[in-house]
Amino acid sequence: MKVVKKREEIKREINELKAKGLSVGFVPTMGALHQGHLSLVRRAGKENDRVVVSIFVNPTQFNNAEDLEKYPRDLATDLNLLSDEGCDLVFAPEVEEMYPDGEEKAAYDFGLLTGVMEGANRPGHFDGVATVVEKLFEAIPADRAYFGKKDYQQLLVIRSLVKQRNIDIEIVGCEIVREADGLAMSSRNRRLTAAQRARAPFIYSTLQKAASLAGQLSPVELKELVAKEINSVEEMELEYFEPADADTLQPVETFEKNKNVMGFIVVNLGSVRLIDNIRIF
Ligand code: PAJ
Fold first, then answer.
1. Rounded CA gap, 148 and 146, in Å?
2. With a 6 A CB cut-off, is 176 part of the ligand 1 pocket?
3. Model confidence pLDDT, tens digit, residues 100-128
4. What is the mean pLDDT of the chain?
5. 147 CA to middle of ligand 1, Å?
């Protein structure tokens, strides 16, 4: 497994593979890797001749200085995990390599997609994500790129980005990987205390409960129920629970037969911000 730090060098490596007729799968990450990330790496390995993973904690997508500072970083362990998975290339640039002219983000227009949820609650977040992903796609002209449905809104934003900018890469959405107790795997889970970790599975069990009651209860009633349940747990504070259309992400006012509805949730557990979602209708 080769570890590369410069954009020019990774681009050369990828272009050499493609010149040999080999397909390349790309998994962008911010490191602190867990089985969720590794499931994307495995899928990329099944569907492509070579796999490249990027590890870069992107400063421009954090709208909270403390979250950026406390974001877990463990490159040595990450490299061991990737090597065990048979990853071929790792791109692990420094901030200055990705942002030689300062940490600036481009302005994008994703329409209604970014007017809700993470777009509304984390101003500038998706401009930061799109900025870095566009730079990564430029440096890593892979055939396919793999994204998790845990960050479902991000997945739709990236699909919109490649369409708008005519980027020739297939975007593959991958299922959420959970701990045995249902908690969605996340790099941020490492920051939970033992007591918080023990409470955290309640987020997913509440989502499952919401899914089982959707239709019987209206979206407004479901939101009230989820807020009451989550806020009753020590140190848990609901940031949002939104029943929304799976394609447009716009909030739904009713459940209707021919409309796919997902429930999107963010919970602050102590100072750790946890995100999850489930198909509810
Ligand atoms: P990061 O949070 O490290 O996630 C990297 C990829 O792993 C994302 O596509 C995310 O959805 C996926 N992922 C994380 N946890 C998962 C889980 N439990 N199951 C399935 N997939 C999971 O998302 C980012 O980094 C950044 O925003 C990035 C796209 C790299 C741009 O900086």
1. 7
2. yes
3. 999 999 999 999 999 999 999 999 999 99
4. 97
5. 6
